[in-house]
Amino acid sequence: MATSAQKPILISGAGIASLLLAQSLLGDSIPFLIFEKDSSISFRAQGYRLRLSSEGLDSIESVLGPEGFQRFWNQCGKTGGGGFVTIDATTGSVGTEPDTDSDREKTNDERAKSPVEILASREGKTVGISRGDMRKIFMSGCEPFIHWSHRVTSYELTSSGVCAVFADGSKSVEGEMLVGGDGIYSSVAKKLSQGRLKTYDTGARGIHGQAPTTAFKGLGEGVYRLADHSNPNGRVFVITNVRPGDVDDPNLQFGWTMGAQPGVIRAPNDDYSIIGTPAAEIAKALTANWHPRLKPLFDEMEESEAAFWKITCSTPTGVPEWRNEPRVTVIGDAVHSMTPAGGIGANTAVRDSALLGGLLAKAGGYQSDVTAAYEGKMRIYATEAVKTSYGLAKAQFGISITENSETVGF
Q: Is Flavoprotein tagged as a keyword (predicted)?
């Protein structure tokens, strides 16, 4: 068990990976501090609903324990069905053909070698939860240790620890180690890896939205991919999850996420931080000729909740090597950003949290070999995850990135 005399573990960012790591440290009485650039948990839109894999659920359960996980599980939605139901968005018919051009060109042997999305994770159900709900659950008990409006821009090693450096030039207290969990723009990741960790802009864009559950009655229970091949500028698709028991309650909402090939969706002034009406109007325009069975999802959408998003991806070949620094490491999107294809990113992020938290618990807190042990194991599963995510997105979004592709700037 860690002692109160220990300096804290410093964590940059208050996303799901950082907060689950904090839960792990809290449970093992290892002191920590979180620094988040936003002013509160509700400062910005939380994004789309997250689908949880068996590995993701196992990781969360290992951190939260039986009682905590049961509370988490109760918040999750569980949807039946064996996999995606593909619907032609303009005709409303259930598709039996592959829903991308690249799939149509593949032989049966090639299709068999392509990545496959596995939806069911427990009890034969597809399990999902909103990002906002997940953050709130993971944050429980950690609130006193979160410093809002603190954007970490760098770090400084000391003779006996590390300090986070903030945007205004001030520094944190000295910590035992620093964990960069602050997403694709992580300055910690950039400095630690000396630029080896890169996040590429795939050029593809999307829109998140939500509507009253009654708008989904034309679909019924299941996980759906609505595919539109009629747009002259490129394919458009929407993924949504219709859970049983809620479709008659107009006070509840289901979410959907829209994606399209590069060039189809463009935010005003190329500003993808815009939320609300501009995003909603584009979503409605792109679905104007869709089948009446599907139109309510967009016609009845909550316009204020619509938000744009960029589709990014780390180096498709996987997580690169860098010179290990015992006092600093990275988790989640800061080290392995993924496309939404396959719903792999969040599940890989919580695996990071459980792994690093477990190693710190076993060591009784910071030890000089913890980050190397974590990074060695993380690279194996994260590299496989990035490759799978990119392979799926290449087929679904029509993207292609190389070492010369545009990267997301810091």
A: yes
| pLDDT confidence band for 4 (50 / 70 / 90) | low
Lowest mean pLDDT, pick from 120-124, 230-234, 263-267, 288-292: 120-124
∠ Cα 267 273 275 (to 5°): 80
Note whether 35 and 175 are same-domain residues. yes
- On whether both 217 and 85 belong to a single domain, the answer is yes
Counting the structural domains of the chain, the total is: 2
Query: 269 and 208, same structural domain?
Result: yes
The band of 316, judged by pLDDT with boundaries at 50, 70 and 90, is very high
CA nearest neighbour of 37 among 133, 146, 138: 146
Q: List, in sequence order, every beta strand (DSSP E) within 174-302.
A: 177-180, 199-212, 222-228, 236-242, 253-260
Which of 313, 343, 362 delimits the end of a domain? 313
Same domain, 366 and 220: no
- Quick count: other Cβ atoms within 10 Å of Cβ 267? 18
For residue 283, give every residue at least 6 positions away whose Cβ sits within 8 Å of its Cβ, in sequence order, or none: 207, 209, 258, 298, 301, 306
Would you give the DSSP letter of residue 317?
T
Residue 283 main-chain phi, psi, to 5 deg:
-60, -40
16 and 96 belong to one structural domain: no
Q: Considering the domain boundaries, does residue 404 fall inside one? A: no
| CB contact at 8 A, 178 and 192 | no
pLDDT tens digits, one per residue of 375-402: 999 999 999 999 999 998 888 778 888 8
Query: Residue 97: what pLDDT?
Result: 40
Domain limits at 369? 9-46+131-200+314-397
81 sits in the region (left: phi over 0; alpha: psi -120 to 50; else beta) called: left
Residue 397, both tokens: 């979004």
Residue-by-residue DSSP string for 119-183? ---BTTBEEEEEHHHHHHHHHTTTGGGEESS--EEEEEE-SS-EEEEETTS-B---BSEEEE-SG
Residue 1 lies in a domain: no
Q: Can you read off the two tokens belonging to residue 372?
A: 């190397």
Q: How far apart are CA 139 and CA 104, in angstroms?
A: 45
How many other CB atoms sit within 10 Å of the CB of residue 18? 32
Domain assignment present for 104: yes
What phi, psi does 331 have (nearest 5°)?
-135, 160
